[in-house]
Structures are given as C-alpha cells and as structure tokens.
Write a structure and sequence with these properties.
It contains four helices and eleven strands. It is α+β, with helices and mostly antiparallel strands and about 250 residues long. Strands 1, 2, 3, 4, 5, 6, 7 and 10 form an eight-stranded mixed beta sheet that branches. Helix 3 packs parallel to helix 4. The longest helix is centred in the middle third of the chain and has 13 residues.
Length: about 250
C-alpha cells in the first residue's frame, strides 16, 4: 500500500514538496540518442527533478537533494516525427518518443555545499527554506522544462502523498539500470564532472531515490580538474537576507 511506503520516508525540517505537471515530458535515455533518436525513460530521473527544482529556486550555497517522486498519472507514450537541424546543414528526420500527460509529486530538501566555504555567511536555513517554498507558490523563478525545452511544465505546492495516484496499489515495478544524475565540479572536492547510474524501482507509485553518495551508485568520470565559477555575496550573488526581502 502507498501509505506503507510513505511511512518509510523521513522528511527533513527543510523539506520542499511540490507537484509538477505537463502535457509532454522527455527524460531521454542516453542509449537511444546514438542514432539521433530520442526515447524517454518511463519515469523522471533524479537529475531531471533536481533541474526542475533549481529552476524554482537555486543558490550555490546549497545543493538540492531529491528524496522521492510519486507518479500520479498512468505512464503513456507518444511518438512524434521531428526534423532536427543537422550539423552539416539542412534538416534530418528523427522520431522522438515522449511521455504524455504527466504529473508528479516531488519531495526534496537542501544541504549546504561544503565545497563553497566562502559562502558560509549565507547559510541561513530558515530564510532559504521559506524563499524556496514561496518560489514554488509562484510557479518557479525560471521556466520549467520536463527533460527537454519543448516540454514546458508547471509547478504548484502540494502535500507529498495526498490525493489519488494511478499506481497507489500497483506493487513493485523495476525500471532497471538508469541514468541517475551528474556530479558537478563545485559539488565534489575533486572538482570532477561525473555521471551517475543506479537501479530504479517503484513501489506503489513511489520511487525513493538513493543519495548521490550512496555506495550502490556507479560513477563514471568525464572530466577532471574542472574550473569552478566564483560567487561573491554582494557582487554576483544575493544573500539569503536579500532574497528574503526582495523575493
């Protein structure tokens, strides 16, 4: 039962809950992109949901952690013929497979980015938390996209677990080995750009994501010793106090 799964989820004191919905979504499976086609995973990836939340409210002071997602609508796909621009010029013909009529409930929280010690003075949990919740109520600070730019989405506040979901009593569903997310250079001490993969399982419509530092996650290093952009409060970054007063 869905309620049994909900009991296993621990909500942090700075948790943020929201619902995101759209007519279409495309959480692209990298395996299908080699030939120019795109085929969506059946469910959103950790990184896609993190990107949505960063469009709602983002600061380099902290890192968003996605705890869980609840699949509200039936998983449906729709294929479309697309004419993308070729690198050599002109257009090509490709088929993209989108998810159709999607709605998700997301539970998340933020943790301080320990790789940016110069922003310690901006670590005001209460104000960042309230600004984030207020940003959700306003529909986010930037445009919301579900996997790709042509899939415009919308966010609104919700209580995670409330309401009827199509898979509430479905049982277990295994989606196999999937792309999990990206470790950006400013989010790890080695300044590496890594990609992560993990097994994805859903139980009664709810996917509980492993943390990025979970030992079961597999990492692949793409680049080492990457440059990291500097942020200075009062120069190119507003403080939590300014965000609170000016949001």
């Amino acid at each position: 039962m869905k309620d049994d799964v909900l009991k296993t989820i621990v909500q942090e004191r700075n948790s943020v809950e929201f619902e995101v919905y759209a007519k279409y979504a495309l959480f692209s499976d990298p395996i299908t992109r080699v030939g120019g086609e795109k085929f969506s995973y059946q469910v959103p990836t950790y990184q896609a949901l993190k990107g949505i939340l960063e469009s709602v409210y983002w600061k380099p002071t902290f890192i968003w952690v996605i705890d869980a997602v609840r699949i509200m609508n039936k998983i449906q796909t729709e294929g479309k013929g697309i004419r993308p621009i070729k690198m050599s010029g002109g257009n090509d013909l490709a088929y993209y497979t989108y998810l159709k009529d999607v709605k998700y409930q997301v539970l998340s929280h933020f943790e301080w980015n320990e790789n940016r010690p110069n922003l310690q003075n901006d670590r005001n949990e209460n104000k960042h938390h309230n600004v984030a919740k207020r940003s959700v109520e306003k529909g986010g600070r930037r445009d919301i996209f579900l996997g790709t730019r042509e899939c415009q989405g919308y966010v609104q506040p919700c209580k995670f677990g409330i309401g009827h979901g199509f898979y509430d009593d479905y049982g277990d569903l295994d989606f196999g080995f999937m792309f999990h997310g990206i470790d950006y250079p400013d989010e790890n001490s080695e300044k590496k750009l890594n990609i992560r993969f993990a097994n994805c399982k859903m139980k009664d419509g709810i996917i509980i994501f492993p943390r990025p530092d979970n030992e079961k996650i597999r990492h692949r290093i793409l680049y080492e010793n990457q440059p990291v952009k500097d942020f200075v409060i009062g120069d190119n970054l507003l403080s939590a106090e300014d965000e609170w007063g000016g949001n």
